[in-house]
Fold:
Amino acid sequence: MPLSIAHVPTDRPERYLKQLVSHLGHKISATVDAEGLGTVTLDSGARCVLTARPGELELSAAAADAEQLMRVQDVVARHLVRFATQEELTVEWAAPVDGGELEAVHPLVGGYVLRHSTPADQVLSELAERTREVTGQAAWMQVSADEGALLTMLVQMLGAKYAVEVGVFTGYSSLCIARGLGEGGRLLACDTSAEWTAVGQEYWERAGVADRIDLRIAPALDTLRALPDEPHIDIAFIDADKQSYPAYYEEILRRLRPGGVIVLDNVLLGGRSLDPAYQQEQHLAMRGLNEFIAADDRVDAVMLSVRDGVTLARKR
Structure:
């Protein structure tokens, strides 16, 4: 429950944002970034992000527990009200929510997106159905049809000839990537499950892309580290064990050609990446990597709110 938001009506949102950051910056960490977002961070790690919007100042607070959340809420609200000498501001925080309860894409929006994207063809649709039959509740690990279409489009736009995939599952994303490759293109597909990857191979054959896919059943880091060191990868898709994402990212980036792209799936972790109360290994790894990539001067990156969050990192 350590996430909360407040919308403060005012005609001076930018002024108050700058005032608050400037004043608090003498005591604690308080900054304004190039996009105009203000961030106030307490010693405990609790933070509040301030966003100036037309007619309001939006406050988004997050902390590891309810006590620290109340503390950062109090610090920000108390100083904000004090600065408002020409108007009376009201700061009403919404009830705290658990990051794991957030929906990056509302079901109604998700359905609309699917209806307005190029639909999956018969082979992909049948592979998705087969995945649900074989894997049961684990079927959620398969990428959605719109994300699959995005992968195909990215591969085509890059004119990719050599792709890498870390995390195959039943091969839906592999099929989407392989379809986008140019003539003579190859996909190195890494996974540790011969059982689940076997599900997709029939559909790779039916789609006519099996000869483009080099499936390696082995720990992905071993496979990646055995690749030539020179930059030769055009695009990579990472969708495997989250705690190993930082290692996968580094091994691929060093072998990615300039202009090449790394696509990372599930960067929101169902909202848990936003919520500092989640402290398991996968949460810490993803949260840390998200921060690292945003500041990594080797790439230009954008995080998209596609399904469970997708980051695109293009090597400079």
